[in-house]
Protein 1
Amino acid sequence: MKRYLTKHEARKVDSLYRDDKGKEKWSLVDKLLLGLSPRDYLAQAVRNPFNWILAMIFAVGLPLIAGRFIFGLSFVTHSSNDYPWGLFLAFGLFTMVPLSASGFMLGTTVEIFGRHDFEPIERLALLNGLLGYFFAVVYLLVDLGQPWRLPYPMVVSFGTAAVLFLVAWHVATYLSVQVAEVSVSFFEWMNWPKAKRFIRKMAIGLTVSGIILSTLHQGALGALFTYAPGKVHPLWYSASFQWIHFFCSSIPAGLCMVIAVSTVVKKTMAWRCDRNFLDNLDKLTIGLAKGASLALVTYLAIKVIGIAHDNEWAYLVTGWGLWFMVEIFLGVILPIGLFAYAIRHNKPGLVRFTAFLTIFGIVLNRINTALIAFNWKLYQEIPHWREVIICITLFAVYIVTYRFILYRLPILYSWKAEPALAEELAEEKVHYPGGAPAVEMYRTMDN
Amino acid sequence: MFTTLKMLSGGIFLAIFSLAVAHQAGAQEMPDVIEIDSLSHLYEGVTFDHSMHVDLAENCSVCHHQNAGVPVQDQNCAGCHAGTTKSHIVSCGQCHPVEPFSAEYLRQKEADVKRYHRDKPGLKAAYHQNCMGCHDDMDGPTGCQDCHARTEAGDKLFHAGDFAPQPGVAQSGHH
Amino acid sequence: MKGISRRRFLAASLAGGAATTLTLSKKAFATGTFEGYPEGMGVLVDLTRCVGCRSCEAACNKEQNLPAPAVPFDDKSVFDQTGHGGQKRRPDENAYTVVNRYEPKGAGGPVYRKVQCNHCNEPACLTSCFVSAYSKTKEGAVVYNSKVCVGCRNCMIACPFQVPGYSYSSAFDPVIKKCIFCYDTRLKNGKPPACVESCPQGVMTFGHRKELIKIGHERIKARPDRYIDHVYGETEVGGTGWMYLSSVPFDQVGFDTTMGKEPIISNVKDFLGTVPMVLAIWPALFTGFHLLATGKKEHHDEDQSHAAEEEAEK
């Protein structure tokens, strides 16, 4: 992408105006097409080999999704009454939600604890959170028997004693909070400073709401399994602490997801990132890793406490126990060791690898709890192949949406200041805590 | 002449005696065959060979457990019924209700707080429970249609016979 | 300007938290103490009497307008059918009740068991439903309202007896399918369910639940050699409306004997109680952190813009 742009001398859309003099504004179409002509835009899309893979996935997956809605769930699942929840929920909901915990984690870090040195990566984390939750709802819509009735627990009939009621309300409210938080970038891009100011004023309130809502629904997803005490294998189940286990593990999940996404971004769309982002990334990656490893150590401790509390030591020496140890080793213990080494010796590359490993551990934990170690006394259920393909397809849509937004909105880069003021600021050499020169920071202009 | 008189009186005495015994044994005559069809709807009535069962049973109370001239054997019953020797009730339907679970019957049962027998089976259950015990032990008929053939209504309910599902009809659901 | 929004937010969240706490608890019942409504009916299923004739399955099929079965109801080969992983038949969208055959060692013959919704006193399905699709009627039936069901299938996860089935085969109106104690057609009018009426052997005894518990124990006392000394469902998961007597240990005929006496909601209520606590504590806690962490700075952006303006003016 970068090579292509440089070769054809196309301008990156990263400010209000096409030119340096502040005379000609970018149109909305320009912003959408990244400053390229429609033909050039299409050409670059076709050249990109990743898009060919996406095209193949969509060719197979999109008809299957249509089939699910035309023919019903029996077309894409095994219609199991013993395993009512399949991969759509085990992966789409129970896994995507903790991986999207990055929103409230970085929001808290920057806005509540005042660690503004994390600002370069804050917007990416917020976007990650928003898209993760949004697509979790998409997966849910594919899974629900009657998805057009999704608003029912909000407006038609309330089952207030149900944990799922809490999850539904919180996810809906939290999505609104996250939309508000990410809308700041959107308003910058659209040049709506009043709207942006309105949201920025609520920053603390939005962030605190985000923490409350996240604590509760991350925990509530765990509490859902307390409805089936006999069905989840004891090593993955804790009558008293299930919700704490799920909440605590969502912290390293969110932080490592930010590291992982920023790694992918750095490798595949470095042209879109500004110096503020790229120069600070390694340092911030180490910082995120410190948080993640603290949370992982805590998670290990509370898992051991959970086993001790329910006296489940005997299960560790069974076949299931071995599988449990594999998950804990790969997802928790090994990352703790690797993070410790990498942080001490300042190795961002190793941190990045370990972040991917941790994410794998979280995915494994959620799928174990919801699908593999579920109904452990019965038979093992292998999801239908159509279910697997739909999961992959929806994840591909998620990636495409992610990429679409990252290419355009000022998430990885800062929206440039007005040219006149930019010159002044450059002359005065004003800098901000992150080390970036003020000329790169557009945000100061509107507060 | 004395011998003839003795024989005559002995004979008359015997006749009166056997009549009395026969009277004792049962106010009504012992039928050879009974048509049990008060409940027939899904199945035809049962043509019941009473005389065969009379020959097989030790005494009447084996089936007519409500005490037909023999002291009560079951310990659970003897507590109250030890003294009784005879009951006028012979037919099962005189005690066992056709609808044991109707709202009315349940209400009646619960209103009668002094009543002991609260777990009395209905008539259909009484028939089957009473018969099947021996039939199982003595290799009697135990299949449903061994004693009573199904009617058309029964075939319809059971989706059997003329109403059986066509082979090869796919069941919806699991695949 | 900024100070007001934060204060306003704090006040609103505290008020909201208080409001939620006040409105949440209405009933005074502790979980596990509900023993059923006074008029609650039940059914005592005596497995020593069942001969596996499947009349109950046929009667249920007719009463509830279920689809025609794959094989006739007098076909005993279904007892040999196994599903995934060797599982015996279970209730699903086409059959609200099934009878299974077990051959426990030393029983001297097969034991048959009828499976259907147990109409629990504190049903897990009801407590897990976020649109209140289930209700426990005063007659004791646990019934289901398909008009509000979203199809989340949490009730199927929650039911400890693996009872509710889902009509996955329907594309546009998939709903839960389970035994409803023949509520609409019979129980509402005081009549016993179709299966109870159809049974030739009197396996099922219909009556008030409290009465049935007494009858069950009396039967055990009268014939101690015939029955295991336990009425299954008397206390399991808070007590169920449909209870069982058996001649062999219950775990040998497919019953889960590890359930305990607490209803399923007992596992969940501790978390539910934590929710208003978090709603009430988190706002002050994190606003406090914010104040402590950022010291004199009320709002980062305010400071930044001050600095920029000052610099720009120089």
Note: The longest helix of chain C spans residues 265-294.
Protein 2
Amino acid sequence: MSLEASVQLTLGALALDIGLNIEEGEVVALLGPNGAGKTTLLRAIAGLVPISSGHIRLDGRVLEDAATGEYVPTERRSVGVVFQDYLLFPHLSVLDNVAFGLRSRGARPQEAAHKAGEWLDRVGLSSYAKAKPDALSGGQRQRVALARALAPDPRLLLLDEPLAALDVTTRAEVRRDLKHHLASFPGLRLVVTHDPLEAAALADRLVVIENGRLVQTGSPAEVTEHPRSQYVADLVGVNLLTGQADHGAVRLPSGPVIAAVGAESGAVFAVIHPRAVALHRQRPEGSPRNVWPGRITGIELMGGRVRIRIEGEVPVVAEVTPAALRELGLEEGGEVWLSFKATEVGVYQA
Amino acid sequence: MRRERVPIVVAVLAAIGAAFFILPLLGLIVRSPWGDAVKSLTAPETLEALKLSLIASLSSTAIGLILGVPLAWVFARVDFPGRNLLRALTTLPMVLPPVVGGIALLLAFGRRGLVGAWLDSAFGVTLPFTTVGVVMAETFVAMPFLIITVEAGLRSMDRRFEEAARTLGAKRWTVFTRVTLPLIAPSLFAGAVLCWARALGEFGATITFAGNFPGVTQTMPLAVYLLLETNQEASYILSLVLLLISLLVLITLRHRWLGSA
């Protein structure tokens, strides 16, 4: 039993065309840059945006089917949503917010209040039952929003950027709590996020979308080890090149041929970690077969390392220590030689 | 912050403008016969007019809420051809001379009017020159204030709260009563108060459509006007009462609606 969604719709400049399945027991993270269509897909699954073609099925039951015109309205979908800025009702107390879904689904006031109280207990906020949402901190609001979405016992839980509204200091703690609550929720779970750390921490499987289309899906480890788009490569912080493999070498579309152990044939991705790229003032002698000249177009400090962006026949980012940067006397606009070993190039089918 | 220097011409014109409002109010307060105040206020005609005014204006406000909120909702939420025209028609009484409104009401609901003739012949119902007529005249003039205030409230509210309610299983009516109405409560309150104040002060449409019969259609403004001919000093006192009520409304609205500046 699962969610099967095939969603096509156009909304302003966004053309969304995505197939998404969520299996029993899975936490799926929908990862992508701003404007990729993550929130729109979530809204379509919740029935808040109509789809123009495709279908959405939950446990085999049709929620929406563009071909037959079937449409189950949002309020009958058994889908709980934690919205990006939580959208707690400002005129209701915390308890009444959590009880709202139970009341709407026909529970008696006392029964709803009792069950809502249990949920507040579970997220550790029973002492705030009578408070209004605006008296809570961001992290507390997030927990109330989660309790409110879970209280009516939905089959599918959707979370839209659940941590984006929080400041950095509380985010790690709230993320840990959220992971715990997600683990104890028995239904299907989908988290929308633009933060790869969040996605990797919360989900069993990542679904990466860009410009309304799916670009990659897999476990966090698979996705980070084998990025299949520039966006994912940038998120992971590795150099991604595409080309044609030819037994021990990869030919880039612009001409240069990179020596790469393990390259067989066909269209491939080649990944080079920035730390594997060495920089030199003069053309280096010796073993590396991959040696290319370039020009430095950007230098930035990241943590204890320096990331140096190099344009040239083989455009890459190299990562060196600040000491190495000083020793080499590198600066923006300067010429530089870069090298990396053929064994440091990871090659996989495109 | 440095205080802005006021150019002399602006200061003089602004002072004249302010005086134009303050002097009449001052006149009313200074010239009112305070000694006879209690007698004038408790005179049976006055009490009758005051009672009628309160009943009629509160009824108009109630009707305004019952009919005006759905109209405002339709204007704010439903896109249909002719919406702007319909909105213009329903808010026309705000700019229409009230006497013209009264005449228009007569032509529609008078004994020979479009609908009135039929009401008269079919049910024997007469609307003009009755207390119901007063309520109709006041509603006609006052309800537009409620409609535009509530529509503005509906347009500016964050509709995603309604979506959140729907994901929690709330049907449309539940969403409306438990989320939409509470969220626009400030606009609802402001609209109702404006509507009530306008109804309370209504004169032109009322006297045209409902006439001036003590105890039946003679509201406070009508009584004030009539007293001006027969007992000027009593009319001053009644004017002062109306002034105080208006002032109260303004102060309430300043806090609840305009926000204290």
Note: DSSP finds nine helices and 21 strands in chain A.
